[in-house]
């Protein structure tokens, strides 16, 4: 089954189940950028992935967000030397993501500001632009995402992460997100 056919089948099952309706957009948005740090989006990093297209889309989104004054929040995932968390046992290559290194700072192409909060996480979840799976786990407030600005290590987990549309939030095109943010300012 091809990706388009599979997507249509999932969409139809969700429609029949009565899930996947659009989330109402409020008037006071904030934008969360999940784990778009140098150590994650730079393929030269041990665990880095080539997300150049997603970083470019995120940079475009950030320019609009910053111009509108909508609150911005980045997250970073990091470890401390000597930790033995479940996450580090599962993904020991992530042990290099340590406080004080550029690997845990927002990717330089995003022109991060010291005024923008950077909460630290010790596992792949946050409280959405970013890595698809981590972003899916950050859905407690029923937000929406642009698939253009989401990426992951491989296509399969990326597609699985985008099932956000079914129960958690809305997956919207970047242009729709930009239009909404301009209007919300």
TrEMBL record:
Residue ranges of the region described as Disordered: 97-118
InterPro entries: Isochorismatase-like_sf (IPR036380)
Positions with biased composition (Basic and acidic residues): 106-118
Superkingdom assignment: Bacteria
Protein known as: Isochorismatase family protein
The species this protein was found in: Actinopolyspora biskrensis
